[in-house]
Amino acid sequence: MRRRGGGLSTGMLVLLVVIAALLCIIMGVLMYMDNHGMIGGGAGTTEESGQEQEPDTEAVQETDADTSEQVADEVKIPFPDNKDADIEGLIRDENPDIYAWLYVPETGIDAPVLQHPEDVFYYTTHNAKGEKDPNGAVFTQFFNTKSFDDNVTVIYGSNNTSEGPFYNLSLFSDPEFFNTHPYIYIYTDNEVLAYETFAAYESDDKLIVMFYGTDVDDQFYVYLDLIKENIGMNGNLKEDIYPTVSDTVLTLSTRVKGKDDRRYLVQAKLIGRKPR
Question: Which CATH number fits the domain 87-275, given the four candidates 2.40.260.10, 3.40.470.10, 3.40.50.1580, 1.10.1670.10?
Fold first, then answer.
């Protein structure tokens, strides 16, 4: 006996499946036409048609030029206008060990830099002319090159008396002076190097380049961390310009009066070079 009711007939199910398939096909076609700009106004913009829009090169160049000028204005380095050093003349007429000139504005530190080829302590007891002098001269040791491209270059000077070349280096212990006198300059025979101070503090008397191995990049990285540890409460530090391993550091070093095993350091990182 055939039961009445109980669902759709087979024919009706087939018809519904066909209608659903047709609707899917129609929707797919409409979506394809819309995505390709075939509906509502043709091809439309180059972006809608799938083509990349050509950049406005003139506008880009103008923007880049404006940005470059702005950056240049923001990072101008105040190289001294009325300062010069005749390195070649000093080598010829005074001492062949002279190879640069150090200038620290408003400190009285304004002197030639020497390096003895054999004796690292020679210029602790001899002046820039090579004459015996308890005040010594401003010098580097042969652990450093003369290019100022080492990770750390250390320049030494005495403060034994008021005639000592680094007598006023301790001015940087005053926070106000430290913050208002940020620049140190090195003159070579063909350029001026500008440095910005980032630290001034008491340290041990170890030879930085030799003991800490700062000529090796990995050790230089370690040394930069040690500076922060050594500064202590009485040191001055500028976190915002603190150097990284890609920087080169200039260190001015003198003794701490009354403490034979301590040194006073002023450290700065290279921020620019200017041809002479």
Answer: 2.40.260.10
